[in-house]
Write a structure and sequence with these properties.
2,3-Dihydroxybiphenyl 1,2-Dioxygenase, domain 1; VOC_core; 8-stranded mixed sheet; globular; Glyas_Bleomycin-R_OHBP_Dase; alpha+beta; Glyas_Fos-R_dOase_dom; 5 helices; Glyoxalase family protein
């Protein structure tokens, strides 16, 4: 079955144990916009928060499930071991390094990997994040930072960059990426681990920072144990529901266990695990986050898909109140 290539990264979903502090960090420190405050549709007792560019364009969303009793993450293999966030250019990284120093955010020095300037840092729960410069990017376009962000637009985060997968068996995941999902091998770059194997870059669609998976094999680590500060899954972009249906048919044909198509209201999804156990999702580009909230008020109220509205009272009673009303900010 011949399918159109996946368009790039759609979103990355991670785990937090504290929605309030998470909201403060990703909106006030990183300057991303909360475009949707909703629930984990598989567990309506917890928040699902979506941070993105000004309107949550596909490829810009970093999302979090709040799991209050989430334990510590024990880092290891068969994991999404780093999430990249794109910034406009190399100059932006200098701004961010200064900002992190002023705010006391744990970070590394600006360095170069795979031909790009990068700045690795961690959030308050140890979430592994990397700012990556789009200065020489050719490929999937980024989004547009919100003009009410505390970060000046010219330095703002424009979307998701490459995701890094750390696995115990390179060949198994590589085969899934190329033979099933249609990624192509692009290049390699050296590991920062002494004696480590080169990291292989795979790309899809138009390529570029918004359409890459970086695959690393490590045989010296145990399997990662997920907790607060870890990544739950990565989603890749599919044009629409019709295309997603074709992907579901292909997975069935290949006998790859999967969820079937799941209605998420803001997009449709299809979930499955690659051979090392990392959860992948295919998600449609639309309809998007303005189906139930106007652009100017995205993320300000608890948004529930229509099929959860009759449970609103019970759901709100289970959730700790989280004030996400926006107020004017002074950029600095």
């Amino acid at each position: 079955m011949k399918l159109r290539p996946l368009k790039g990264i759609h979103h990355v979903s991670a785990i937090t144990a504290n929605a309030k502090k998470n909201y403060e960090f990703y909106t006030k420190t990183l300057g991303m916009r909360l475009v949707k405050k909703t629930i984990n549709q598989d567990d309506p007792s917890v928040y699902h928060l979506f941070y993105a560019d000004e309107r949550g364009n596909p490829g810009t969303d970093l999302t979090f499930f709040e799991i209050l009793n989430a334990g510590q993450t024990y880092q290891g293999t068969n994991s999404i071991s780093a999430t990249s966030l794109r910034v406009p250019d190399d100059e932006s990284l200098q701004y961010w390094q200064n900002r992190f120093e002023q705010l006391g955010i744990e970070h590394d020095e600006i360095s170069y990997h795979s031909g790009r300037a990068t700045l690795a840092f961690r959030d308050f729960e140890g979430q592994r994040l990397v700012l990556v410069s789009d200065e020489d990017n050719v490929g999937v376009a980024g989004g547009r930072p919100w003009d009410r962000s505390p970060v000046p637009q010219e330095y703002g985060i424009v979307g998701l960059g490459p995701v890094k997968l750390t696995v115990s068996s390179f060949e198994l995941t590589a085969k899934m990426l190329t033979d099933v999902l249609g990624f192509r091998e692009a290049r390699t770059y050296p590991s920062v681990i002494s004696g480590g194997l080169d990291i292989q870059v795979f790309e899809t669609g138009e390529g570029g920072t918004g359409a890459e998976v970086h695959l690393e094999e490590r045989t010296d680590l145990p399997r990662e144990s997920q907790g607060r500060g870890s990544v739950h899954h990565v989603a890749f972009r599919v044009e629409d529901g019709e295309e997603l249906k074709h992907w579901a048919e292909l997975l069935k044909e290949l006998r790859i266990p999967n969820s079937g198509i799941v209605e998420r209201y803001y997009f449709k999804s299809l979930y499955f695990r690659e051979p090392n156990g990392i959860l992948f999702e295919l998600a449609t580009d639309g309809p998007g986050f303005e189906v139930d909230e106007p652009f100017d008020h995205l993320g300000e109220h608890l948004a529930l898909p229509p099929y959860f509205e009759n449970q609103r009272e019970q759901i709100e009673a289970m959730l700790e109140p989280l004030n996400t009303k926006q107020s004017p900010v002074n950029q600095k």
